[in-house]
Amino acid sequence: MDAERDTDRLARASLAAGDPTGWFERLYAEAERGTAEVPWDRPAATPLLSAWAAETRVSGAGRRALVVGCGLGRDAEFVAGLGFATTAFDISETAVRGARARHPHSLVRYVVADLLDPPASWPARFDLVVESNNVQALPRALRQRAIASVGTLVAPGGTLLVLAAKADRPGDDGPPWPLTRAEVESFARDGLDTASIDEFPAPDDPLSMRWRAVFTAR
Ligand SMILES: C[S@@+](CC[C@H](N)C(=O)[O-])C[C@H]1O[C@@H](n2cnc3c(N)ncnc32)[C@H](O)[C@@H]1O
After folding, report:
1. Which residue's CA is the closest to the ligand 1 atom numbered 16?
2. pLDDT tens digits, residue range 50-87?
3. Among 47, 72, 134, 171, which is most exposed with the fewest C-beta within 10 angstroms?
4. For the chain, which domains are there?
5. pLDDT digits (tens, 9 = 90+) for 193-214
6. Of ligand 1's atoms, which has the minimum distance to the CA of residue 27?
């Protein structure tokens, strides 16, 4: 099986049908049946997330975290391990069911929800919001809406961590559609201030770069 080919096949059909998010559910469902692979289903937490946590020595005691586009729960479990009362959501029901099954003793609350239409109780609720590789998986036409939605979820005084592939200029050939610096900077809106925007070589491809950006909410 070739995970990139599976993603390409399902994403192209979905995008051609005017359904930019439908392919995620189809990919997870095929993976559950053993006929496709999920390329981002890796055994360990996202390296830039775990490195950030180690550097900042962040502690989640008494605080709430939200993991956007959690897939099968790898990063959500890591965040819960930092002590945060963690909610994690994905648009794919199969992914959320898979995350619960994979982590049967988890403290994470896994929820099916759409970033583009999040539950009414979520705005300004979370002390840490982790956005890793989800905005870049949505077509550019949805980008500013997705970025704005992520930002609304951060509580006053809270932190937004954004991890994404880097593009030097906007391109149309995706998914993914990596983020330009201007797009990363545009997370700083509606009460969010930029704390840092850094670039690191991708662990699996040192010739390409990844963003790690941190925003704080007033
Ligand atoms: C490229 S994967 C990244 C997964 C994970 N965050 C990571 O870094 O490995 C994008 C994830 O976002 C989910 N997703 C896509 N659109 C979404 C939306 N509108 N709301 C919630 N989740 C979404 C997909 O189902 C998928 O699990």
Report:
1. 21
2. 999 999 999 999 999 999 999 999 999 999 999 999 99
3. 171
4. 1-39 (no CATH), 42-217 (3.40.50.150)
5. 999 999 999 988 888 999 999 9
6. 25
